[in-house]
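Slide 14.
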Amino acid sequence: MTPADLRQLASLKDKIAAVLGGIVDEFYQKQTAIEDVVLLIGDAETMTRLRRAQYDYVLELFCGIYDADYVNNRLRIGLVHKRIGVEPKLYLSAIKTLKDILTRVIRTIVEDPAEANEIADTLDKLIYFDTTLVFDTYIQSMVGEIAAAKIRTEKYAEELARQVEDRTRELETMARTDPLTGLYNRRSMTEVFERELAHARRKRGTLCCAYFDVDKFKSINDEKGHVFGDQVLIAVGKAIEHSIREVDIGCRYGGDEFCIVLPDCSLKDACSICERIIAHFNQKFPQQALSIGIVQKGIDDVPTAQELIEAADKKMYQAKEVEGSHIAA
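Slide 15: predicted structure.
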């Protein structure tokens, strides 16, 4: 599978989400026709949990983000199925049923038959990859005593997660950073932002977005030259790196515009971080000002990254109504 194949698969996420209820309904209608499956499910509460998990599983197939968290989720699926006594043949039967349903849906919503075949082929490879991970955990848990098997599985999962993380990092570093400031560039920021939003939704956590620029930056370039302007931007980048937490993500959005993604962060803490950025920046450029807008994704909010950026951008223009460096949140 190439990155282009995975992006093509991810392009169907919204269309799949729109018909996901019907997909899950059809899947469990077929599964509950199997007596062994009915015995394993047991009660309505378990069925509700399974349906919710199936929603998440299908969405993750089309999420476009296949990193260490994705791999670990698949490893956990294998462990859970083994512990509750799901035989491999039942799992394989279920995954084939799901793949057949999804393939049919893809051929329905994608008008070009050739494109539909390409996407279906990518889905088949991704599900095969998932199945390989699931059965790796089946095999590991069958070896030795339960405690020893658990230890071996965890070590295996950790090593696999490290390998995936290393390879992901190698790919990301090829085109993710802005050469002037060393921050994430705009192209890579969108991917990182969506990943953090997805993580916040799964955890029902909060997330803040700060968006800002250098006041009157065009005048700075016109009056003092682009070399001086570049030094100002470099100073902003260093101020961001010096002031943000390890989990935060600083990005140069373009020109003199910057964006910071702050996971698990309150508005108060986000304002404190931005105040540190201003203070650090003004140590080198006391005559220049930063106008910063901050917005927060609440526990139950489901905005897109672009919506949060646009909201923070509006806040930034409110901050510009005050002379000098200012934060609007």
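Speaker note: The CA atoms of residues 209 and 261 lie 5 Å apart.
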